[in-house]
Specification:
Blueprint: E1 2-4, E2 14-19, E3 32-37, E4 42-44, E5 50-57, E6 63-66, E7 74-80, E8 85-86, E9 103-106, E10 110-117, E11 128-141, E12 147-151, E13 155-160
Parallel strand pairs: 1-6, 4-13
Antiparallel strand pairs: 1-11, 2-10, 3-5, 5-10, 6-9, 7-8, 7-11, 11-12, 11-13
Length: about 160
């Protein structure tokens, strides 16, 4: 199975391939699942928010992931739990870098780990509790050219003064 997607590069800190973590993920589709988490559920206001995303192979066979143009694939949903309102996401520029032309083989129970600064995409300007999800659009099966999307687990983030 070969799946193609475009990887965002703005704020990307690292990318790595290794066995997946024990953390919760969102629902699986086409042999992949998406997990999102921070090292700590608490962060100080104004500090960088390092968000790890795991693109997991939950199938029993190798999956091929292809990278594309930067900035067209991820969206970050951040909801202020006190108001129920979604914080606005900054516009992510297209092009200008990213992971292009990469054909990554991900074995069963392996994941491609990407680390981003969430605050590069969604500024959090006040202390509070936030619910964070990541969506990955335009996952394309090369066999039939169909597109699917993945959504991560919902993660609680406490931002303190």
């Amino acid at each position: 199975m070969c799946l193609a997607f475009a990887a965002a590069a703005v704020g990307a800190v690292s990318a790595d391939l290794k066995p997946w973590s024990s953390r919760q993920s969102g629902p699986a589709k086409n042999g992949l699942a998406l997990a999102a988490y921070t090292e700590s559920p608490r962060v100080d206001l104004g500090q960088p928010i390092q968000l790890t995303i795991e693109i997991r192979n939950v199938s029993s066979h190798d999956v091929y992931i292809m990278g594309g143009d930067a900035g067209i694939n991820y969206s970050f949903g951040v909801v202020d739990t006190s108001s129920g309102k979604m914080l606005p996401q900054l516009e992510v520029p297209r092009g200008g870098g990213g992971i292009y032309g990469l054909n990554m083989r991900v074995g069963p129970r392996q994941a491609w780990f990407l680390t981003f600064r969430l605050d590069d995409y969604v500024p959090i300007e006040k202390p509070g509790t936030y619910l964070v999800t990541v969506s990955m659009r335009d996952v394309r099966r090369s066999e039939d050219q169909s597109y699917v999307g993945l959504t991560s687990n919902a993660m609680t983030l406490h931002v303190t003064q």
